Amino acid sequence: MSHNGGEAVQAETFDRLIDRVGKLLEQFGRHDSLLEMGDYSIYGDYWGFPQVKVTVENLELLRPDIVERLQGVVADFPGWEIVVAVAVPEHISDWPDMGLYIRPHEIIDGLQRQYFPAEYQTIEYAGSRRGTEQD
Predict the structure, then answer these.
(1) Does the reported pTM lie above 0.70?
(2) Every domain of the chain and the residues it spans
(3) DSSP code string of 11-44
(4) Average pLDDT score over residue span 80-93
């Protein structure tokens, strides 16, 4: 298979994964639109890496049951991951970068819960681990 053919297959896989991620998240919140902020956004351009990027603006979307379902989706796409970045609009300038890497076999947890309201500080994900420099 040529390099371009491989890229086309990857782009098709990206499209399938982004569609499934979108269908799942729309059950729990509103996607950003041009007219208003929603609860999340999905970066829609494939840029050559096997990942889908989701920005979460509503911490409710970090619930373990939702993250577990996202992991179930990406499990159907070996070698791919869902990158979840936390970007709460009121805290864009005073919270550090943080998020999750959701892979078929693991969740890498880079959340800095000390910044979250109390009700979100105890969120835990089964089988997760903290990120390292090798991630």
Answers:
(1) yes
(2) 3-130
(3) HHHHHHHHHHHHHHHTTTS-B--SSS--SEEE--
(4) 96
Residue with tokens 């569609």: 19
Mean pLDDT, the chain, rounded, equals 92
d(CA 94, CA 8): 40
Rounded CA Rg of the chain: 15
pLDDT score recorded for residue 4 = 63
Looking at this protein, which amino acid is placed at residue 14? Answer: F
First-last CA distance in the chain: 29
* Cβ pair 25, 40 in contact under 8 A: yes
Identity of the amino acid at 58:
N
Lowest-pLDDT range of 33-42, 77-86, 99-108 = 33-42
Q: Judge contact between 64 and 81, C-beta under 8 A.
A: no
Side chain identity at residue 73, one-letter code: V
Instruction: Tell me if 102 sits within 8 A of 52, measured CB to CB.
Output: no
Q: Which residue has the tokens 């959701």?
A: 102
